[in-house]
Amino acid sequence: MSGLSAIPFSLLELSPMKEDATVSSTLANSVAYAQKADELGFNRFWMAEHHNMPGIVCAATSVLIGHIAGQTKTIRVGAGGVMLPNHPPLIVAEQYGTLESLYPGRIDLGLGRAPGSDHITSRALRRDERRAENFADEVTEMQTLLGPYDGSHPVRAIPGENTNVPIWLLGSSLYSAQLAAKKGLPYVFAGHFAPRFVYDAIALYRREFQPSDVLAKPYVMLGLPIVAADSDEHAQFLATTSKQRILALLRGDPLWLKAPVKSMAGLWNEQEQAQVENFLGLSVVGSPVTIAHKLNMIVKELGVDEFIFTNDLYQSSDRHHALEILRSIKA
């Protein structure tokens, strides 16, 4: 298991909500989860931007990042990510520059170009779909706003300027991999929901990477769904919670966090089963020995530099225990 000791483990949080819970209790659970990760020495705790999704309560990403950073000690906290076409780059720079000023050396800014919701919600966000076509230019604008002032641009992010908040590019396609390589930025592949292009995207990123002022060589972080338990059998049982969520997503139903079930039989048809299993194709499910073996294989196959896990289990105690298992396999 020691082969994983040099690979940083991080967490991606969506603040999953049970139907009978409150937003306040759900966010309190996220804070407690972040504190557990901080205590166990995890590297990062990132929040994912989603809108208009009952069952997912991390819409106000920068607010939550500030709250969680204030309730933890050393873990890096950031956005995984900000869907940049939803927001003016200046506002994002001011927000994350403020966070970096409050919590120096602990803030990350992951940028994506997806809407983070449906087209109706995109219109409610006043999102201009054409802005996605200008994503590369807006990433450059973010770098300028968060970098040192050179006297040439009239609009400055105050605060934000010269905070040099680390920027990551997130994606599930070849486009984001190629852009990250061109700009010499660290790259995160969204394997937790879109495993299809994982091999091609990472290979493209490494092949075309151009060293930059912020990164001398490629750096790949891979998002994975994790379900860790004391036995393979119990892990498979717990994994039905995420399967039910993805099934609800495919059907357009609310994404409430649901209790695990003994069998998914009768809850889906064959086509839906295939779609859910494809969606979760990179899931790592099992006991400590099984988890360690699977992660080691992924490192060997893809040369991953860091993992960032989604850990959507029904009970907070199971989520916390999963973190303990992940920590143990790095020993």
Descriptive account of the structure:
With 331 residues, the protein is an alpha/beta fold. It has 12 helices and 9 strands. It has an 8-stranded parallel β-barrel, surrounded by 7 helices. Helix 3 links the parallel strand 3 (76-83) and strand 4. The longest helix has 18 residues, at 23-40. The chain is globular, with a radius of gyration of 19 Å. It starts with 8 loop residues before the first strand and ends with a helix.
Which structural traits does this protein have?
331 residues; alpha/beta; eight-stranded parallel barrel; 12 helices; globular; Luciferase-like_sf; Luciferase-like_dom; Bact_Lucif_Oxidored
Task: Give the structure's gist in a few sentences.
The protein has 331 residues and is of the alpha/beta class. It is 42% helix and 15% strand. The protein has an eight-stranded parallel β-barrel, surrounded by seven helices.
